[in-house]
């Protein structure tokens, strides 16, 4: 079985493309998505001219020394790959577990877009029946429209009532208990 690219980096092997590609994560087609993820994290945390610097480096978020400068005979990128490994799929990207923490082995993982959407500073966290999830996750579980639940909560409903009281379909109004009339 052929060695993975992670193994190539761990072993410090050179590639057929020469010294410019010593980490083994480039091909004739260009830079790997793992390399671009690492380079993007370093840029947005350390370069004030990066368009996203104010959301990262400007907030005090950094990149651990090992990933920025490397150690011993490994570059920062090589250390990143040894710590993070290959992306599980093309659908994964670099995600910080704690959004206020640095990019480091203890605080990073490969996540899908859906997982990352639930790990934003703007996510609304709700505890229901002793379990905490984002509003979007609870809406998916209960199969409720997010906008309607958000409106209920904003109107002062309890979390329990907002999710567990029956939803009246759009276009219908209640007349009496058990009797529904179309508004058309």
What features would you describe in this structure?
The chain has 184 residues and is α+β, with helices and mostly antiparallel strands. It folds into 2 domains: 109 residues, no CATH class; 58 residues, no CATH class. It is built from 8 helices and 8 strands; from the N terminus they run αββαααββαββαααββ. Strands 1-2 form a two-stranded antiparallel ribbon. Strands 3-4 form a two-stranded antiparallel sheet. Strand 1 and strand 2 form a beta hairpin.
The coarse overall form would be elongated
- The helix/strand class is alpha+beta
Strand percentage, roughly? 15-25%
Elements, N to C (H/E)? HEEHHHEEHEEHHHEE
For the biggest sheet, the summary is: 2 strands, antiparallel
Q: Strand order within the widest sheet?
A: 1-2
Number of helical elements: 8
What is the end-to-end distance? 66 Å
Radius of gyration: 24 Å
SS elements, strand count: 8
Low-confidence stretches: 5-21, 180-184
For the record, the count of structural domains works out to: 2
Outline the secondary-structure elements.
Blueprint: H1 5-11, E1 26-27, E2 30-31, H2 33-46, H3 65-69, H4 76-84, E3 92-96, E4 108-112, H5 113-117, E5 125-128, E6 131-134, H6 135-142, H7 146-154, H8 159-164, E7 172-176, E8 179-182
Antiparallel strand pairs: 1-2, 3-4, 5-6, 7-8
């Amino acid at each position: 079985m052929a060695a993975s690219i992670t193994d190539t980096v761990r072993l410090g092997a050179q590639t057929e493309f020469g010294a410019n590609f010593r980490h083994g994560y480039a091909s004739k087609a260009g830079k790997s998505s793992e390399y671009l993820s690492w380079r993007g994290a370093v840029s947005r945390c350390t370069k004030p001219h990066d368009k996203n610097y104010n959301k990262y480096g400007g907030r005090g978020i950094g990149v651990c020394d090992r990933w920025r400068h490397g150690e011993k005979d490994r570059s920062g990128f090589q250390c990143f790959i040894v710590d993070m490994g290959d992306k599980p799929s093309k659908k994964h990207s670099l995600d910080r577990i704690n959004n206020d923490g640095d990019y480091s082995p203890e605080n990073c993982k490969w996540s899908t877009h859906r997982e990352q959407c639930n790990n934003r500073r703007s996510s609304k966290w709700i505890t229901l029946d002793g379990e905490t999830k984002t509003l979007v996750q609870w809406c998916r579980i209960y199969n409720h429209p997010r906008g309607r639940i958000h409106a209920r909560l904003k109107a002062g409903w309890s979390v329990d009532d907002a999710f567990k009281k029956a939803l009246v379909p759009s276009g219908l109004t209640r007349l009496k208990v058990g009797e529904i009339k179309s508004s058309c």
